[in-house]
């Protein structure tokens, strides 16, 4: 426990997929004038310096946001879903050079409305990242709309759904350091769906050769179907360069550089999102893809 630090992975291909979809979901929720509540059960440190020792050591952003920003897609006007995400990241890098990468707390905060008064709840257990997050939160413009707890996000979620306005998003983005994370995600979604069936839910997960990783999207699909709610599953696989050695079987640090694919599972997604991602992901995988095995997939139902 606690060997995972998101700073090593910030801005990698998995963050690109997750945060691009997160922006799209929030935009959709914010088309209505009712306030929303966002619960980020696994928040991380919030903001990351891409020139830090962390990011420099792993260099994962080079295969993610750095590559995307330097690509013709960023210059020529990408699909609106990609363009919206890139604009948000540019907002943190006003001098032009890509130095800062916003984690999910800051992606959400950037879009949070003052009127209506949207809310954001952040959970982070790691002592160092929780402290870093608190420092970053203290500097937020809309700090009064943000609550942070150094508590277990799966447990903390229970008291926050349904939110008072009955509109909101739950983002569950564990590090999957421990096997039980997989079953805890399923249990948390099952419980939250009972309390708040109309809520929006988004789960990030690694695509790795482990039975629990294969089982989780199937479990989430079953839960959505049992609750009679629509679902969407989107996957991005950047593949391997032909000369690259085979990726190590992921152990504790599933997001280390060996991770080549990840997916996001949504319940109650925006109804236009599947079509949007089917247009946005092919050019994205062309840019981020490294060769053998590169692929994308969008499935939806309900
Ligand atoms: N959501 C962040 C983003 O997109 O920028 C990244 C989060 S990172 C993948 C997962 C984080 O969850 C780590 O910082 C880890 O310390 C934290 N964590 C692990 N188990 C947790 C738990 N049960 N409750 C809250 N945080 C936890």
Which labels suit this protein?
302 residues; alpha/beta; Rossmann fold; eight-stranded mixed beta sheet; two-stranded antiparallel sheet; 11 helices; 39% helix; binds S-adenosylmethionine
How would you sum up this structure in a few lines?
The protein has helices spanning 13-29, 53-58, 65-69, 72-76, 80-90, 104-111, 127-138, 153-157, 180-195, 211-226, 273-288, and strands at 37-40, 47-49, 100-102, 119-123, 146-149, 168-172, 200-206, 231-237, 261-267, 295-301. It is α/β, with parallel strands linked by helices. The chain has one domain: Vaccinia Virus protein VP39 (Rossmann fold, 3-Layer(aba) Sandwich).
Bound small molecules, by name, code or SMILES, are: S-adenosylmethionine
The average pLDDT value, as a whole number, equals: 93
Most strands sheet: 8 strands, mixed
User: Helix tally?
Assistant: 11
CATH fold-level assignment: Rossmann fold
What is the total tally of β strands? 10
Q: Helix and strand succession?
A: HEEHHHHEHEHEHEHEHEEHE
Provide the low-confidence segments as ranges: 248-253
Fourth CATH level, the homologous superfamily: Vaccinia Virus protein VP39
Neighbour order of strands in the largest sheet: 5-4-1-6-7-9-8-10
State the CATH class: Alpha Beta
From the alpha carbons, calculate the radius of gyration and give it in angstroms.
18 Å
Helix content: 25-40%
What's the assembly state of these chains?
Answer: single chain
CATH architecture: 3-Layer(aba) Sandwich
Distance between the termini: 36 Å
């Amino acid at each position: 426990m606690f060997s995972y630090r998101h700073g090593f992975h910030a801005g990698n291909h998995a963050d690109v997929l997750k945060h691009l979809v997160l922006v799209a979901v929030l935009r959709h929720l914010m088309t209505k004038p009712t306030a929303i509540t966002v619960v980020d059960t696994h928040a991380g440190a919030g903001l990351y310096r891409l020139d830090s020792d962390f990011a420099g050591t792993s260099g994962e952003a080079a295969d993610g946001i750095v590559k995307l920003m330097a690509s013709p897609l960023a210059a020529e006007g990408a699909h609106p879903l990609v363009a919206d995400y890139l604009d948000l990241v540019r907002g943190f890098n006003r001098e032009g050079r890509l130095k800062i990468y916003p984690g999910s707390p800051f992606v959400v905060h950037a879009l949070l409305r003052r009127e209506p008064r949207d809310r954001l709840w952040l959970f982070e257990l790691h002592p160092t990242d929780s402290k870093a997050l608190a420092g970053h939160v203290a500097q937020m413009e809309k700090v009064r709309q943000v609550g942070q707890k150094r508590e277990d996000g799966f447990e903390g979620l229970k008291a926050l759904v349904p939110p008072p306005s009955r509109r909101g998003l739950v983002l569950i983005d564990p590090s999957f350091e421990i096997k039980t994370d997989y079953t805890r995600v399923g249990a948390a979604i099952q419980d939250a769906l009972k309390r708040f069936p109309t809520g929006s839910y988004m789960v990030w997960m690694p695509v790795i050769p482990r039975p629990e990783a294969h089982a989780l999207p199937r479990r989430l699909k079953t839960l959505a179907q049992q609750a009679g709610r629509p679902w969407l599953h989107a996957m991005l696989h950047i593949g391997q360069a032909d000369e690259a050695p085979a990726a190590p079987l992921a152990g504790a640090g599933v997001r280390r550089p060996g991770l080549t694919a990840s997916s996001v599972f949504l319940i109650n997604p925006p109804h236009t999102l599947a079509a949007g991602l089917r247009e946005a992901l092919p050019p994205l995988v062309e840019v981020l893809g490294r060769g053998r095995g590169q692929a994308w997939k969008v499935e939806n139902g309900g």
